[in-house]
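[Discussion] Sanity-checking designs against the backbone

I'm trying to build intuition for which residues belong where. Below is a structure token string of 331 positions. I'd appreciate it if someone posts a full sequence so I can compare it with mine line by line.
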């Protein structure tokens, strides 16, 4: 039998590669794994809570107020960061502004986390895969003070680590610290993540394209002609590619990471800057894509080099297999 490696053991081994590492980042990654297990457990009960145990806004059997699952997920991660003590502040898709944690231990912490607690949350009600996406930066403000806006508005190239948790047919946590990409599958019976996808590499070319084709008439001519190519002779054998669009970025991205493919959400009139958020979705997935040998751009330039100016900034996203992204950009 091959040896099983838990996420915790893997993180400890990686930390040993850096003799002067303080262990803070390792502890933070373990905090994320803990929150992921809590959210995974909640996601698995989503239909029960919504449809059997009472409507939203009501109370559950313990008399607790029921909340929407994306709020529950947001709070689970915030709690894990506050209890863990490695994070001085967070920004998330669910909060209008960033949160600077008040406690002295938090103010002494070195990291900030930016995250989308439940990506694809419109899919919760229909039992389709959803996920959490996260991005970790070292703070720019002075240690010992409260986190500041500048800590959140860093270029993607400054990420220390990034990852996602996909609550799919199984729960998988994929992350990078800038030295390759590894995936860990949760064994729900014992509540432990095990290394299941070591050193993930995205195929240079693929046969899957993921785009909301309902927006086709709003796409620019370059993108329309790329999609016409996908639908006709793109394959080396002169056949079309297959279209696959879940509507959960994290799930579409994960599939394309494993099988090879491209996900595109450009700027369109209904979303003139793009639909997806630079800080919570595009930067972390771009870091992972590049670490796995893929590419991520806004159609023109590298996602990781975009200077954020606001927390909820949106951008166009072309992400996936290197050759496919280049072709879609007209290179
Ligand atoms: P969310 O973070 O509010 O769930 O929104 C992001 C989602 C992505 O997961 C998905 O790819 C995209 O929005 C779908 O948008 P559309 O319904 O316009 O195709
Ligand atoms: Mg999202």
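Best answer:
Here's mine. Compare freely.
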């Amino acid at each position: 039998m091959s040896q099983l490696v838990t996420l915790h053991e893997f993180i400890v081994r990686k930390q040993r590669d850096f003799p002067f590492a303080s262990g803070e980042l390792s502890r933070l990654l373990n905090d994320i794994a803990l929150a992921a297990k809590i959210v995974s457990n909640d996601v698995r009960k989503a239909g029960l809570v919504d449809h059997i145990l009472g409507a939203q806004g009501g109370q559950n059997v313990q008399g607790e107020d029921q909340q929407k699952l994306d709020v529950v997920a947001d709070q689970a991660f915030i709690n894990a960061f506050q209890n863990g003590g490695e994070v001085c502040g967070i920004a998330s898709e669910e909060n209008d502004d960033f949160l600077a944690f008040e406690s002295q231990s938090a103010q002494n912490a070195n990291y900030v986390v930016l995250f989308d607690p439940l990506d694809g949350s419109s899919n919760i009600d229909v039992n389709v895969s959803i996920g959490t996406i996260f991005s970790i930066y070292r703070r720019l403000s002075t240690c010992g003070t409260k986190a500041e806006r500048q800590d959140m508005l860093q270029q993607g190239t400054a990420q220390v680590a990034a990852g996602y948790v996909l609550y799919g047919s199984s729960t998988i946590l994929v992350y990078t610290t800038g030295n390759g990409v590894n995936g860990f599958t949760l064994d729900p019976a014992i509540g432990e993540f095990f290394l299941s996808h070591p050193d993930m590499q995205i195929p240079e070319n693929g046969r899957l394209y993921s785009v909301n084709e309902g927006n086709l008439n709003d796409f620019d001519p370059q993108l329309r002609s790329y999609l016409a190519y996908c639908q006709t002779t793109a394959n080396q054998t002169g056949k079309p590619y297959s279209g696959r669009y879940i509507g959960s970025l994290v799930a579409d991205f994960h599939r394309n990471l494993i099988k090879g493919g491209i996900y595109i959400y450009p700027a369109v009139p209904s979303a003139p800057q793009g639909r997806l958020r630079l800080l919570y979705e595009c930067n972390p997935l771009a870091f992972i894509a590049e670490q796995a040998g893929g590419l991520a751009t806004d159609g023109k330039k590298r996602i990781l080099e975009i200077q954020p100016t606001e927390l909820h900034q949106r951008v166009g996203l072309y992400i996936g297999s290197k050759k496919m992204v280049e072709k879609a950009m007209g290179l």
